[in-house]
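Internal QA ticket QA-208
Title: Verify multi-chain structure generation after dependency bump
Assignee: T.L.

Test input:
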Amino acid sequence: MEKLIRSGSNTMKRDLLLFIGFSVLIMVAPQLFAGGYLMNVLVFVGINTMLAIALNLLLGYAGQISLGHAGFFGLGAYISGILTTTFSLNPWLAMPIAALAVGCLAGVIGFPILKLKGHYLAMASLGLGIIMYIVFNETVELTGGPSGLSGIPNMKLAGVSFDSDVKNYYLIWGFTLAVMLFSINLANSRVGRALRAVHDSEVAAQVLGVNARLLKVQIFALSAIISSLAGSLYAHTMTFISPASFGFNFSIELLTMVVIGGLGSIYGSFLGAALLTLLPEILRGANDYDIIIYGGLLVLMVMYMPGGLVRGIPDLFKKIFKPKGGADHA
Amino acid sequence: MQFDQILQYTLSGLSTGAIYALIGIGFSIIYNATGIINFAQGEFVMLGGLLTLSCLELLALPLWAAVPCAIAVSTVVGILFERLAIRPLKQPTPINLVIITIGGSILIRGLAMLVWGKDTHAIPAFSGDVPISVGGATILPQHLWILAITLVTICINKIYFYHTISGKAMRACSYNRRAAGLVGIDVRRMVLFSFIISSAMGAVAGIIVAPLTMTAYDVGVMLGLKGFCAAIIGGMSSGLSTVIGGLLLGVLESLGAGLISSGYKDAIAFIILLLILFIRPQGLFGKADSERV
Amino acid sequence: MNVKFTHYVIAAATLLFSSNVFAAAPIKIGALFAVTGPAAFLGEPERNSAKMVIDEINKAGGVKGRKLELIVYDTAGDATKAVQLATKLIKDDKVVAIIGPSTTGETMAVIPVAEKEQIPLISCSAGSKITDPIKKWVFKTAQNDALAVGRIYEYLQKTKQTSVSILTVSDGFGASGREQLKVQAAKYGITVVSDDTYGPKDTDMTAQLTKIRGTHSQAIICWGTNPGPAVIAKNARQLGIKTPLFMSHGVSSKKFIELAGEAAEGIKLPSGKVVVADLLANSDQQKKPLMAFVKDYQKHYKAEGDHFGGHAWDAVMLIRHAVENGADTATGIRDQLEKIKGFAGIGGSFNYSAQDHAGLAKDAFVLVEIKNKDWVIVK
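Actual output:
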C-alpha cells in the first residue's frame, strides 16, 4: 500500500517536472523566433492546442466523439466579438460571459445528445456543429453574416494592449498552459479515473457507483467551455471573425489533431496541434500538391503510428537507437 | 399555399433524396460489413461524375459505354483504397479508421483536382432537357432517370443480399463478424466486397445527378454528408429504411426552403434529424441494442 | 513535374545572378490569392494575370531599371490563413506592397494588419466596405458591388419594372450583393418582394424558384458565382419561368455560358468591359489595355481572360505607375497611388484621391445579354 502511494506521488512529481520543463521551453521560444512569421504561427499552435485538449478530454478520456466542436469554438468567438463591438463590453468581461453561456448550452444539450452512442453520436454532434455554423451565417444583423465581423478590440491588461504576435503569444500560451495543467490534474484525479471507467464500460462504471450520465455531460460542458475560451482568445487576437473558420472542416481537423497526437494524452494534443498547424506552412512550397501530401501523410501516420505521435515518436527513437531491442517490442 | 407548389417541392425533394439514399446505402453497406464510417464515400460520387465526363470528352465514348466505364474505374479506386489504406492497418480501432478514411478522401480529392482542375464541368442530360409536366409541377427527363436507376439499384441490392451466397455471407458478417469467421466466411473478402459495392453505388449516384447539378472535384463533401445523414435516419440499414431516410431528408430540405426559409433549410433538416435521434437514439427504423458488459 | 523543377532552379539561379549583376535590388510585391478552395475561380486567374504582367514588365527591363519580384501565397479563401500570410509577407519577405486578397471576407481580416504595419494593400475584392470608410493604406481595384446593382436597377427603372425577387448565395459575395440590392431598391422605385438565399454547394434550387414564381415579380435577380447560378438558370428553364432573369458580374465569363447551356440565353448581367472588349467603340479609353490583356492571357494560358484576372492586372499596373513616379518604399507607393488619375485599366478608369480609394465610377460596368452563346451589350 505504502509503495503504491509513493509511486502515485512519484508520477505526480514526474508530471509536474515535465510540465515545468515544457512551460520553460514555451516561454523561451520567442527569444529564438521573435519578429518573424513563425511567431504568428506559434500563436495559432497555442489556440489549436487548447482546442485539441478540449476535444481530447471528451474523446480520449470519456470516449465520446464530437464532430461539432468548431461550433463551440465559433460560439465563444462570436459572443465575445459581438459583446465587445456592438455592446462595447470589456473583453475580460465578455470572455467569461461567453464561456458561461456556451457551458450552459452544452450542459442542456449534453443530456439528450450523450445518450447516443458511436456513429449516432458522431452524426448528432456533426449536425449540431452545422446548425451553429448556419446560425453564424444567417443572423446577419448580429454576426455580420458571411462577410464576417470586424473591428473586435485586442485584449488589454494593465495598460498593455495585446496587439503584436509576441504579446499575443504570451497571452495565449498563458491560457493554454493553464488549461494543460488543469487537464493533467483532472486526468490524475478521481474524476479522471471515473472517466476512464466510463470509457471502458459505462454499465460497469454505473455499477461501481459512478453517475456515468452526469459525468459525461459535465465533461462535455467543460470541453465546450475550454473551446469557447479558445474562441474568445482567437477573436481578440485576429480582431476579425467569419463563419468560414468555424465550419465542419475545422471540426474534422480538430479530431485529426487529437488522434494524430495521441488519444488520452495532453502532450499528444500539443504534438497533434503543432504538427497539423505547421504542416501547411511546410507544404506551402508544394503549391497544388500540398493537399495530396497532406492527405497521404494522414493515412501513413495512422498506419505507422496508430497510437499517435506521443507514442510513435518514442518508438521510433527506440527503433533507431536499439535496433535489436526493438524486436521484442514487435 | 397552392397545391402545385407543394407538389413541385415534393417532386424536387424526392429526386434529391434519391441521390442521398444511394449514397447512404453505400455508407451502410461498408458500415455493416466492417464497422467503418467511410468518410470517403462522397469522393466516389465525385469520381463517377468526373470520370463520365472524361470518357465522353477525351475518349469520345457514347454515353451507354461511358457510364459503365466510369463505374468500373471508380470501383477500381474503391478496391485500391481498401487494399492500400484499410487492410494494412495494424490497430483498426474505429477512430483510427475514421481518420484513415478522412485522409483518404482528402487524397482522392487532391488527385482529382490535379486531373480535372478546379473548374465545374457540365455533363449532357441522358435524354434531353425538355421539361415534363406532372399535374402543375414540372420535372426533367433526368429526374425520371434518377428515380428509375435508384429503384433498379435497390432491387439488385435486395436480390444480392437475400438470394446469393456472398450476399448472405455479407449479412452474416454484419450481424456478428467473429461468428461469421468461425463458420468459414472469409471476412476480409467480404470487407473488400463491401467497398466494391459501395464505390460502384457512389459512382452511379454521381453519374445520374451530374447532368442536373454539374460536377467538380469538391462536390463529394456535401453529398457525402447528406448521404451519411440519410443512413443514420434509416438506422444504418442497407435496404429500404435508408431509402426512406434519404427521401425524407430531400423532401424536408425542399419543403423547408420553399415554405419556411431558404437560408435555414439545412438547419431545419438537421434539427429534425436531432429530434429523431433524441426520441429514437437508434435511428427511425433501427433496432435498439443493449450494451454487453 | 521535372520540367517545373528545372524551371524553379533556373528562376532561383537568375534571381541570385540578377541581384549580383544589377546594383538595384528588385522591388518586392506580395500577393494573396485564393488559388484553391471555394474562391479558386477568383484566385487562379488573379495569380495567372499578376504573374504574366510582372514577367512582361521585367522582360522589358523593369521599372526605372528595377525589376519587380512577385511573391504569391495561396490563402485557400480562408480569412485566418490570409492574415497569417499577410504577416509572413510583411515580416519574412519584407514586401513593400500587397495585392489581394481575393474575397471581401479575407480583405476585411487583412486590413488591420496592413494598417498596423503600414504597408499599402490593393484588394482585388468587391465589397464596398473595404474602402468605405476610407482607410489610409487600403485601396481596391475590383468594382464595388453597389455599382453592379446600380446598373441592373437603372435598366429596370428605364423599362418600368418595379418589383423584383432576389436569390443570393449565402457566402460573402452573395451577402454583399443582397445588402446592396435591398438598400438601393427604394432609390430606383423598386420593391423587393421576396428575398431568398441558397448554399454555395446546393445542387437544386427549384424550391426557391417555385416560391419566387408564386410572387409574380417582374424580374428575378440572382447574385452568386459558378456553379450555383448555372443551376438556377437550368432550374428556371425546367419550371418554365418566363420572368426576366438577371445575374451578377460574378458569372461574367464564358464558363457560365458553357455550364448553363441553352438555359443561359436571354439572361442579362452587369459585367466589366473585358468580356465585350472587341465590341467597344474605338474611342473608349479602355479598349487598348483590354484588347492587350485578352490577347496576352490567351497566349499564356490558352484561356479567356476574365475581369477577375483583370483586378490583379490593374493592381500590378497601378503599383508600376507609382514606382515610375519615383516611389520604392511602402510609404512612397501609398502616396503615389493616391495621386493616380485617369489610369485606364481592365476594371475601368481609375481616379484615386485622398477621399476615394476605390477609384471607379459607374461606367466601369456595362449591362450585357447572352445571345447565341455570346455577349451582346444592352443599350
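Spot checks passed. Chain B touches chain C at residues 2, 5, 8-9, 12-13, 15-16, 113, 118-122, 129, 131, 138-140, 209, 212-214, 216, 218-219, 221-223, 253-255, 257-258, 262-263, 265-266 (CB under 8 Å).
Status: verified.
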